[in-house]
Amino acid sequence: MLPDIKEFFGTYKQVRDQADELLFRAGDADAVDEACRNSSLGKLLPNALYIHRSALEELGPLLRVYEGCARAYLGQIEDANLIKLHRFSGKISYLAYPDFETDPHPALATCVKLNMRSRQIDFYDYRQSANPPVLHRKETFLAASHPCSLASPASPGRKSGTACLTTRRRSAPAPAGTPASERQVSVWQVIDCCVENCRSTPDKSGSRTSR
Question: What is the CA radius of gyration of the chain?
Fold first, then answer.
């Protein structure tokens, strides 16, 4: 380890000083906001940067430290697959979407939110809710390496990034007069078309995904 420190940092004191500076900058709201705005990963909204758990290691150093501070305090939130990095308030939210990989619009099951300034922890449970928050355009939260990302290599016979977006089989529209119970696939065909349209529609803030 010492040869590596000398090669990249010069001395142990220099690497320790740089680490301390990075740690303290993680508590600076302006620095966090700038890092969020400059991040090429995740989905940036007015108050936060949302990112999939699988992309954490691809974040810049400051945001990795910012999230790492919350994880060091809370421990690993096993079910969380989406992370909300609040830009101004010093909070981190861990969102659990159990059907993220299979549902085009997965519903939020639970959320754990930590205020790192006050150390207050809030827990939200939507599992029994009749109308839980639903995630839209989930591919925008992912790194290019994730199979659901629009930038991922195309699978044989599919467009790039569509493997996790639509899982229902499409069929021709049901004839007029078909009972509702037999029109289920046609309904999902409409939903699939909406998913396709969302890709080319500019995103609007105010989504009910935030906590």
Answer: 21
Which single residue is written with the structure tokens 């509702």?
A: 180
Q: Which of 61, 49, 53, 60 is nearest to 89 (CA)?
A: 49
What letter would DSSP give residue 205? S
Cβ–Cβ < 8 Å for 42, 67:
no
Task: Read off the amino acid at residue 135.
Answer: L
Q: In what helix (H) or strand (E) does residue 186 lie, and over which residues does it extend?
A: helix 184-199
Question: CB–CB of 50/83 below 8 Å?
Answer: yes
b/e 154-171 (16+ beta carbons within 10 angstroms → b): eeeeeeebbbbbbeeeee
Tokens of 118: 């006050």
Spatial distance between the Cα atoms of 37 and 39, rounded to a whole number of angstroms:
6
Other Cβ atoms closer than 10 A to 56 = 17
pLDDT at 89: 95
Cα angle value 136/140/142 (rounded, 5°): 120
Give the model confidence (pLDDT) of 41-76 as tens digits. Answer: 999 999 999 999 999 999 999 999 999 999 999 999
Spatial contact of 194 and 187, defined as CB atoms under 8 Å apart: no
Contact 100, 111 (CB under 8 A): no
pLDDT of residue 171: 37
